[in-house]
Amino acid sequence: MYSIIAFMGPSGSGKSTLQCTLGWKKIVTWTSRSPRNGEILSLAYNFTDVETLKQMEQDGKLLEMTLYNGNYYATDLQSFFEVLEKKSYASIIVDVNGAKKLKQMFPLDVLIVGVFAPIEDCKNRLLTRKDAYTDSRLKTYKDEVQNIHEFSDIIINNGIVQQVTSLQIVSLLKSSIIGMREYDR
């Protein structure tokens, strides 16, 4: 039974909003980039240097590691093991590499939710949050949408018009997963 929901999709599609709506513990990933204004250590990311991430990878502690815009982003395995050991619930935002690895390692424990939104909606959201990398993030839009169709267990259309429905779907997923686990006991 699912214990972890992993959201994947293009930048600006609303993954973080849906993750917050879910209200489950967030699996905090790692990055080699510097914290942005207002980002808090271990809340947004675990911030570290490239050498530490590469050592973690060598030691087999990472699920995956990706280079994006000159910075490394990584997901450690221990986070998943802790959720599964405690029989609790958590969520994470992943790219296609993370989704592939999660499906390989935890096929019965992780639900991959693809989050789609039209490119104009994504662009407007990125511009609203004054994202410095809007253009480079949108360059990968087509590939990311293709990946959603290939690797997601369920796809949510989170365009501006459908946003309320998307939030309802996430709430429904949450109650269904918790309900099924209670039923199995």
Automatic annotation (TrEMBL):
Family the entry assigns: Belongs to the guanylate kinase family.
Enzymatic reactions: GMP + ATP = GDP + ADP
Entry protein name: Guanylate kinase
Superkingdom of the source species: Bacteria
Organism expressing this protein natively: uncultured Sporomusa sp
Highest classification ranks of the organism: Bacteria, Bacillati, Bacillota, Negativicutes, Selenomonadales
Pfam families given in the database record: Guanylate_kin
Role, per record: Essential for recycling GMP and indirectly, cGMP.
GO molecular function annotation: GMP kinase activity
InterPro entries recorded: GK/Ca_channel_bsu, Guanylate_kin-like_dom, P-loop_NTPase
The keyword Transferase appears for this protein: yes
